[in-house]
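QA checklist item 7 of 12: single-chain prediction sanity check.
[x] sequence parsed
[x] length recorded as 212
[x] structure emitted
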Amino acid sequence: MYTILIMSRKGGSGKSTTAMNMATRFAKEKYQVALMDFDPQKTLTKWHGRRDDYFQGNNSILYTPCSQETFAVEHQALEESGCDVLIIDTPPTISDFHDDLLKASDFALVPTKTTMEDLETIAEVVDSIEKNETAYGFLINETKNKTLLYLSIKDVLVEYGAVLGTITGTVQIPEASIKGLALCEYKPDNINCQQYDKVFKNLDRRLKNKKK
């Protein structure tokens, strides 16, 4: 089982939205996908509930209720059940529990926006990830490509690790979430779907290479 941690020190960076869209993209490739949600806002949990309603019980993505105390047991149970991919949404903090999650993860995906407030948290996040020897990469959210600010922040991120992709942002992403869908299910012709597809392919390749 591949375990993917969606991690950021700053709220509003797009963690939950990233988890939704990566989960559905893996499911599209016939991976059996499960979700865990440790973010206090429970955005991912609420999205999954709306998704259950939308698909009337035929939701192909599993949601696993879990606490810090039961994480190790639930993680092992998912692995033994034959689950292919577990995606974990995390609180916008750095804690000892993040260390436990990182040790259990194959990859940490770090979403960030192109603001100084986001950038100022990156070093602490990277230190935590590297301390636990977990592979990682970045996703730049809600930006305009080729602006001076975007290029400057991307240059800084590349010094730390790989940038798996950029999502330029659209009002149709939250519109999809309201229905319990990911963007590529709601508006498959949207340019952001191609961007999420690139992130998925980069992530999927890294996971497969890691398992070799």
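[x] summary fact logged: The first helix runs from residue 15 to 28.
[ ] second reviewer sign-off
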